[in-house]
Specification:
A: alpha/beta, five-stranded parallel beta sheet, 19 helices, B: alpha/beta, about 10% strand
Chain lengths: ~650, ~300
Amino acid sequence: MSKKVGVFVCHCGTNISYTVDCEKVAQTAAQEFPNVAYATDYKYMCSEPGQHLIQKAIKEHNLDRVVVAACSPRMHEPTFRRCVEQAGLNPYMVEMSNIREHCSWVHPNKEKGTEKAIDLVKMSTAKVLKNFPLQSTTIPITKRALVVGGGIAGIQAAIDIAEAGYVVDIVEREPSIGGRMAQVDKTFPTLDCSACILTPKMVDAAVHPNVNLVTWSEIEKVEGYVGNFDVTIRHKARSVDMKKCTGCGICWDKCPTKVSSEFEMKMMPRKAIYTPFPQAIPNKPVIDRENCTKFKTGKCGICAKVCPIGAVDFSQEDELETIRYGAIVIATGFDLFDHSVYGEYGYGKYPDVITGMHFERLINASGPTMGKIKRPSDGKEPKKVVFVKCVGSRDEAKGKTYCSKTCCMYTAKHATLLREKVKDSNAIVFYMDVRTPGKNYDEFYQRTAGEFGADYIRGRVSKIYQKGDKLVVRGEDTLLGKPVEIDADMVVLATAMLARHDAGDLARKIGFSYDQHDFFTEAHPKLKPVETHTAGVFLAGACQGPKDIPDSVAQASAAAVKVCGLLSKDEMKTEPIISAVNEAICSGCAMCIPVCPYKAIELKNITERAHGHQIERQVATVNSGLCQGCGACTVTCRSGALNLRGFTNEQILAEVDALCL
Amino acid sequence: MKYAYYPGCSLNSTGLEYNMSTKAVAKSLGVELVEIPEWNCCGASSAHLTDHLLALALPARNLALAEKDGLDVAIPCAACFARFKATEKAVRDSDKTQKTISEIIEMDYQAKNTTLSILDVFANKVGAQAVSALVSKKLSGLKAACYYGCLLVRPNKITEFDDPENPISMDNLMTAIGGETVNWSYKTECCGASHAVINPNVGRQMLRDIYRDAKLNGANCIITACPLCMSNLDMRQQEVASFAGDAAYDLPVFYFTELMGLALGYQPKELGIDKHFVDAIPLVNKLGQVQAGRDSA
């Protein structure tokens, strides 16, 4: 039986028909192209009537394959696949010819546009003639989720997933969950205490029967694919037996070694055996082996002596554990910009030029100054404080091009808190723009500048230098067009939010993409904001881009929904457009293995009969769960043994022949 | 090491001691300075406020003369240096400018050679380590506030050496000759020389800030690499003190080359140190004594 092709040309309103004579394209296809049994044009092919038109034509003309000349397949290929499937065809017997993005939108000349559209349809017709039905297979799904990062985003995602009834592990590299939010004093725009709203969530996560906290641990290796990720976790040696330890605190009371506390932005000491902050969960310490006297010199060991239950264990070693997960949520958070690249702000060498995070700790009741604002150099209460926004953000020369999104609000919060705590203080804010989109955000800023009397000066700070015990802040008031110079007691820099310094390593380990700033890339900027391009891996919080607490929490819950959607199924369909190996001609050269970005190809041994003998040899094999159908292997294969289903060498060459011969 | 040498107008008048000391130091360090024959004014400050092409053409003629001899140019004066660098860059970056300028100066100038500040030559091309090895008298007791001013390291895209916010090449040289340098905030602040005539009170305040910050940080002298800064800082000290009602600052001002000269064994008179407004000789006499005392003991 000869093949019968139907060609359907879409006008897309006037999107296509303005520059392409759609009727002529359909007519030419019907008259000139081989095996075209039917061709027509229609105003909106993706609409209900448009789809009915296709289905009707399939039945009436006994079509066994279809070309739709319309928009990008990224837009409507699934629509038309469903459409032909309902009419009884295999969904992969449809080809889309992109005569919108690739033709009408980019060419102004209708005559030439039509000519090109005809060529494009001709190619698709040639390809569809080589199409063959493809079948999806199914893979099982492991009903357990991994959350990487135990900040507010990770905690929220884990709680939501756990509530839906799935087991979820939070892997956190610090000794405690809590993340950045634990460091923050108050939250905007309500000024409620950050710890007061965070710690109940931390406890919820800790006591939830479906949540496992895996702290002081990192992701070592990730293998497998959606539904079946085999994740190797490195449990760093804690030097404390978690099962025995009760968190009584005698060990860190007695430990003689003081180290600058990372949590307190190095403004306060912690011990070598420590929990990062009093509300830490789990409230069980770790030994910082780099600084511990016992590990450095072999002497000391006081913590082990004072521990009433013998929980301190110096002999512990890192342990690796491999667990299978169905889905992964990445919630690794952010780093802060290091302002020491700004020579004009003193290269980070002036003690009273601090960052916003330092200020958070200075105003926090459990911080190094017990909540009394004291400047680092001499402990005096600063009366005149200058806040500088956009330090490292929106600065192509020395920082990042993007806006860090949160700084306008946290600076307004800092100015408010300063004015509240130090009544006779001045809060002076240098800004480029005040950006406060968000519920009740602008109202908050208006109160800061109005009720709380912070002085907002529009302009950049050009220089900060020490003059006696004052810091001279020099800048420009661009609204008045005048230079300004302020003798300040302390300067707070709103430093940019950055991707974690090792974000790229994690992305490569797991195998998903990240942008030029190392922020993780969502699958679609609008419509797939929590998915990555790698199936089964989802994003939450500031690891995807600068975000405040409300946005992080919202995204975490969204990611959790995606995870639950995936885990609710017992098995999932796989995309059949993947590579296949023709074992008969595969030479086992393994050239395809390093080019595969998804680590989907490996070698296997096969036995076959050749010249009357049983021989064993190696050939490539494609893991259908991992293969994403990119086709990199097919162009690398020297013997042409690898072929991408749906885009076989034969199909591609048929297109080229149709155009060139 | 051989450079075309451009002294400019200052080094034959107010900055005579800069010329004397630069030549002396260059000789000791084995840097051959060949004065550009028939050199002309670089046009600094007046030309670039008058006419863009004139401002480029004046240095271009000098640069073209050096280019003909295949030499890079070394310049002590910060203002001359800034104008030469700006010209060099403008000509290098645009074929059109290159053609126009060559036509104006009636010489072919391709900007194949480059201009270096004499500070750059001594601090980076010769290098602090090499200087240190040649020192015959260590200047212990020197607590120098190294003052770079506005033109020497800025704009960095044009000057192309040292750090524009916290320059250190002069500091490195002072350390190399056995002195100490102070960490202070006014390294690159404007000295206000251009306000001296038009708006003297503004200029005086700017000078006062510099003196006071230098003293506050424990300096016993200010070191410069610019003849205009030098005259401004040296000549007006008494005037500023009486204007502000401060006690005498008593801060001798040196060209960095003068101190290098001392360390390399020259006498103050050979370097022109006796020509200063603020008497520098008492401090000079004290330098190196601590060292000498320790040696004899």
